[in-house]
C-alpha cells in the first residue's frame, strides 16, 4: 500500500522536473548576459575547462550519488550490519581518489581532449577505438539503468505511480535543461542537488540519533541491534519467543549467520567482506570507463583537478556511510522493536529498506523526504550520463566517422539530438529490465563484470607508454568473456541452475567481477611487455585540438599560463599518486581488515564513537560540497546578482562593470 498519494508522486516527477528545467535554463541565460558565457560547442561539452575546485568536487559527489548509493547501501546495512555501510563507502570511494591520478595525467598529456575515447583513437587507431567505444557506452547504459530502476521502484512503493511511467518521466526535466545548458548546466544542478541531499541526510541523522521515540540515541540503537543479534533464526523457536513479530510472512529478523556472534555491530562479516570486494572491483569500471568522470576532469582547471577529486571522493564517502549507518541499521532496529514489518528478500534487493525505515520513523514526512532524496540522486546523476553519452556520440561517432570536419552549430545540433535520443532510450531500457524482473541490486553487482575489463587498458592508455593496441583489445575482450564465463559457471556449480536468482547471488558475482578485472590486467601487462610500444604523448598533446566556433567569438576566455606549467603539473601528479594511494590503503586495508580478522564485536562506547565519526564526516562533507563552492565563486555570484538588480531597476551596466564581468569569467559558478 502506497504511503503517499499518487498526486505527490506526479508532482515530484513533473513539478520538480519542470522547476529545475526552468531554473537551469534561466541560469544559463543569466550567465550569458552577465558573464559573457556563450553556448559554443566547447562550452556545451567542456565548460571551457575553467571550473574551480569546489564546484568540480560538488559535481563529483553528485555524479557518484546514484539511486544505488542511497538505496543499496541501506540494503547491505540491513543484511550485514555496520560492515555494509563501511564497505559500500570505502569500496566506492577509492576509485574516485585514484582517478585523480588519471585526471591530472589527462591535463598533462591530452589537455584538449573532449572524451577519454578520443585519446584512445589518437593513440591506437580505429580498431581499438571501436572496441572501447562499446565498453564506454555499455557503462553509461548500465549506470543509467540502475538510476531509473532504483528511482522508479521507490516512487512506485511510496506513491503508487506506475513504474513504467516513472522510468520515462524521471529523465524528462533533466533532458530539457541539459539540452539548453550542456555540461555547465549539469554542474549547477549537481550543486543544487548535492546540497539538498546533504540537508536530508543530516535531518535523518539527527532524527534517528536525537529525537526518535523508538531509537533516539546511539546507545538505544546499540541495545536494539544487540537484541536482534541474540534472536534465533530457527522459525519454530522464534515463533515461541517473539509471537508478535512472528505473524509477519518472513517471521521477523534474527542474527546474521556469518557475522561474528551473529552480531549486526561488527566488521567481522564474511558476506559484508565479499560485498566489499565486489563493490571495489565493480566500481572501478563505472568510474574509469564512465566518460562522466573524464568530463569533470576535462572541465576542471588544471590547478583544481587533483584537489577536486580528492575532496569530492572523501565528501562522497559520508553519503552511503552516514546514511546507511543511520537508516539502514535503523531498519533492523525498527523491525526488532516491532515498529516495522520485516522486509522480504525482493524488497531488500529492490532498495526499499530506506523508504520503509523513513516512513516508520517519520510517517508521511519521512516518505516524502526519501522521495525528494531519490529524485535528486537520480536526476543529477542522469544529467551527467546524458552529457557523457552526448559527448561520446558527438566526438567519437559523428566527428570520428560521419563528419570529421564538423564545427560550431553542427556539433551543438548533434549534441542536442543525442541527448534527446538517449533520454528516450533510458526509459525504454529501464522498462525492459523491470519486465524481466531485474532490479537495482542485481545490476549493481553485475556492472563490474561488464565494465571492469576495460579499466586497466584505459588507465594504461594515459599513464603507460608501453601498452600496445593488441594488448588493449585482447585484454578487454578476453576479460569480459572470461568474467561472464566465471560468473555463469559458478552459479551453475553452486546452485545447479542458471536463473536470475542464482546468478544474482554473491559468490557467482564475486567470481565474475574478480576474473573480469584480473584477467584483463594480466593480459594488458604481459602482451605489452612481450612487444612493448614506446608511445610519445606529445602526439596526444598536439593532435587533439579545441574546436573553434565560427559563430561566436571566444577570445574573451583568459587563461593563466601558470595553469599549464609543466613543473606545476608534474608536482600535482606526484601529489595525486601519494595522496590517493595512501588514502586507498587506509580505507580498504588499515582501517577495516584488523577489525575483520580480530573478530571484534563493538561495545556500546565504541558503537557510539562509530556513529560520532559518521556524524562529523557528514558535517565536514556538507561544508566542502555546499558552502565552499559558493565561497569560491562569490565574486561571480555577486556580479550576476548586481546585473539582475540593475536590469530590474532599469539601469545599465557601466563599461567598468562589463570589463569586470569578463575578467571574472573564469570564476563563474
Automatic annotation (TrEMBL):
Cellular compartment(s): Membrane
InterPro entries, per the entry: DUR, Na/Glc_symporter_sf, Na/solute_symporter
Keyword Transmembrane helix attached: yes
Taxonomy, superkingdom: Eukaryota
GO terms of molecular function: spermidine transmembrane transporter activity; urea transmembrane transporter activity
PROSITE patterns: NA_SOLUT_SYMP_3
Membrane-crossing residue ranges in chain numbering: 12-30, 86-106, 127-149, 161-180, 192-212, 268-289, 309-335, 368-395, 416-436, 442-462, 469-489, 509-530, 571-594, 606-631
Cross-referenced NCBIfam families: sss
Family from the record: Belongs to the sodium:solute symporter (SSF) (TC 2.A.21) family.
PANTHER family with a match to the protein in the record: PTHR46154, UREA ACTIVE TRANSPORTER
Name of this protein: 14736_t:CDS:1
Native source species: Funneliformis caledonium
Source organism phylogeny: Eukaryota, Fungi, Fungi incertae sedis, Mucoromycota, Glomeromycotina
Amino acid at each position: 500500500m502506497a504511503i503517499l498519494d499518487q498526486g505527490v508522486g506526479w508532482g515530484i516527477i513533473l513539478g520538480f522536473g519542470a522547476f529545475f528545467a526552468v531554473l537551469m535554463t534561466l541560469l544559463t541565460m543569466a550567465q550569458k548576459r552577465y558573464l559573457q558565457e556563450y553556448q559554443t560547442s566547447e562550452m556545451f561539452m567542456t565548460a571551457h575547462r575553467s571550473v574551480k575546485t569546489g564546484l568540480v568536487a560538488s559535481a563529483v559527489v553528485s555524479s557518484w550519488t546514484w539511486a544505488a548509493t542511497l538505496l543499496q547501501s541501506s540494503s547491505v546495512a540491513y543484511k550485514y550490519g555496520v560492515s555494509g555501510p563501511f564497505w559500500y563507502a570505502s569500496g566506492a570511494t577509492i576509485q574516485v581518489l585514484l582517478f585523480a591520478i588519471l585526471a591530472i595525467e589527462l591535463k598533462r598529456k591530452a589537455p584538449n581532449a573532449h572524451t577519454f575515447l578520443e585519446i584512445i583513437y589518437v593513440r591506437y587507431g580505429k580498431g581499438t577505438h571501436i572496441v572501447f567505444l562499446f565498453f564506454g557506452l555499455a557503462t553509461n547504459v548500465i549506470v543509467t539503468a540502475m538510476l531509473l530502476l532504483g528511482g522508479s521502484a521507490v516512487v512506485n512503493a511510496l506513491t503508487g505511480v506506475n513504474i513504467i511511467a516513472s522510468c520515462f518521466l524521471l529523465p524528462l526535466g533533466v533532458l530539457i535543461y541539459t539540452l539548453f545548458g550542456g555540461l555547465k548546466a549539469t554542474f549547477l544542478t549537481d550543486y543544487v542537488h548535492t546540497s539538498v541531499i546533504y540537508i536530508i541526510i543530516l535531518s535523518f541523522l539527527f532524527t534517528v540519533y536525537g529525537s526518535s521515540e523508538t531509537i533516539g540515541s546511539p546507545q538505544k540503537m546499540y541495545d536494539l541491534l544487540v537484541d536482534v543479534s541474540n534472536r534465533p533464526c530457527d522459525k519454530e523457536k522464534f515463533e515461541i519467543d517473539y509471537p508478535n513479530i512472528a505473524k509477519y510472512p518472513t517471521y521477523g529478523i534474527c542474527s546474521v549467520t556469518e557475522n561474528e556472534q551473529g552480531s549486526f555491530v561488527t566488521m567481522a562479516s564474511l558476506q559484508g567482506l565479499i560485498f566489499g570486494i565486489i563493490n571495489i572491483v565493480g566500481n572501478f569500471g563505472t568510474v574509469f570507463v564512465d566518460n562522466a568522470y573524464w568530463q569533470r576532469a576535462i572541465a576542471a582547471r588544471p590547478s583544481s583537478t587533483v584537489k577536486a577529486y580528492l575532496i569530492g571522493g572523501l565528501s562522497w564517502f559520508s553519503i552511503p556511510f552516514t546514511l546507511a549507518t543511520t537508516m539502514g541499521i535503523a531498519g533492523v532496529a525498527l523491525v526488532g522493536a516491532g515498529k516495522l514489518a520485516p522486509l522480504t528478500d525482493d524488497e531488500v534487493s529492490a532498495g526499499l529498506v530506506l523508504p520503509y525505515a523513513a516512513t516508520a520513523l517519520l510517517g508521511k514526512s519521512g516518505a516524502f523526504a526519501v522521495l525528494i532524496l531519490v529524485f535528486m540522486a537520480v536526476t543529477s546523476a542522469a544529467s551527467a550520463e546524458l552529457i557523457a553519452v552526448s559527448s561520446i556520440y558527438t566526438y567519437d561517432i559523428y566527428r570520428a566517422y560521419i563528419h570529421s570536419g564538423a564545427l560550431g552549430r553542427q556539433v551543438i545540433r548533434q549534441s542536442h539530438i543525442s541527448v534527446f535520443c538517449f533520454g528516450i532510450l533510458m526509459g525504454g531500457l529501464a522498462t525492459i529490465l523491470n519486465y524481466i524482473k531485474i532490479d537495482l541490486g542485481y545490476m549493481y553487482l553485475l556492472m563490474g563484470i561488464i565494465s571492469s575489463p576495460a579499466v586497466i587498458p584505459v588507465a594504461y592508455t594515459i599513464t603507460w607508454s608501453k601498452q600496445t593496441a593488441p594488448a588493449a583489445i585482447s585484454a578487454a575482450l578476453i576479460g569480459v568473456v572470461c568474467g561472464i564465463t566465471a560468473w555463469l559457471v559458478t552459479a551453475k556449480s553452486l546452485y545447479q541452475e542458471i536463473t536470475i536468482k542464482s546468478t544474482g547471488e554473491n559468490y557467482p558475482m564475486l567470481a565474475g567481477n574478480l576474473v573480469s578485472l584480473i584477467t584483463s590486467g594480466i593480459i594488458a601487462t604481459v602482451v605489452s611487455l612481450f612487444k612493448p610500444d614506446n608511445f610519445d604523448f606529445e602526439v596526444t598533446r598536439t593532435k587533439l585540438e579545441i574546436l573553434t566556433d565560427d559563430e561566436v567569438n571566444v577570445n574573451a576566455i583568459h587563461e593563466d599560463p601558470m595553469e599549464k606549467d609543466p613543473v606545476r603539473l608534474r608536482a600535482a601528479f606526484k601529489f595525486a599518486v601519494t595522496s590517493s594511494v595512501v588514502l586507498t590503503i587506509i580505507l580498504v586495508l588499515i582501517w577495516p581488515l584488523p577489525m575483520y580478522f580480530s573478530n571484534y564485536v563493538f561495545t556500546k562506547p565504541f558503537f557510539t564513537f562509530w556513529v560520532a565519526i559518521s556524524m562529523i564526516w557528514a558535517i565536514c562533507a556538507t561544508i566542502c560540497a555546499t558552502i565552499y563552492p559558493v565561497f569560491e565563486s562569490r565574486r561571480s555570484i555577486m556580479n550576476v546578482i548586481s546585473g539582475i538588480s540593475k536590469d530590474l531597476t532599469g539601469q545599465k551596466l557601466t563599461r567598468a562593470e562589463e570589463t569586470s564581468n569578463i575578467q571574472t569569467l573564469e570564476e563563474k559558478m
